Predict the structure.
Amino acid sequence: MDKVLLKDLRKQNKYSQFFHEWKEQEFQEHPEKNSKIKELEQLSQNIGMREGLTIACYDYRSLNLAFFAGNVGELTGYPSSMFREKGMETTFALTHPEDRPEFIRFQKIVFDSFHQLTLEEKHTFEFSYTTRWVHRITNKVTWVLGKVRPYLIDSAGNFAMDLHIIMQLYTPPKTSSYDWNYSYQKEDGTRIFVSKNSPHSRTVSLTKKEKVIVTLILEGKESKEIAERLNISVNTVATHRKNILKKLKAKNVGEMVKILSTYPF
């Protein structure tokens, strides 16, 4: 690998912070890992890997690409070695600068939404995105559409590996920047679909303690009453309330109550 590529690879380290939650999951060993990779190899051979189509499998335990097939090197200007060693970070680097903030935001949404689901629901989870890739050498911009689902969920319910089917779009889409959606099937059979343009459909990501406090707030309880009920300090209740406000992007308690009365959580 030449010096320029080595320099590029080292630069990717600064992007690790955006994906640390994925990597810090308490993963459990999965006996099917090797067989899953072999299935991907067989799949890529069977579909012939036509031009503009890439199959990729991100391993969230290391944030690299456990498997990929297609013309991703030609399409992006990044060598396969960079994807193998720094898969997620290299993908972030080649993403159009204007799309990166939403890319990061969506990663957080996917992580939070997935970990609120039951194990049965997790196995029905899938998401897609439309974004622009910038060629490392020529700076040519290419639109791509990615379809993703969990490929390996470990015994603890962690999102260990995913399966990406990425298609090159030869005609620019209607969207002008990073677009996304996700869906899953609830245990009662209901299909939930959430898109970038329907943020109010998104489940609010609250901790168990925050959910208890939210319920008490909606019952009209004051901080002192909540503290006594949960046997915690008033200051601790205040901290939880601030965190809830932040997650809901609410300006005050009144707006928080209004949002909580309509959002699922």
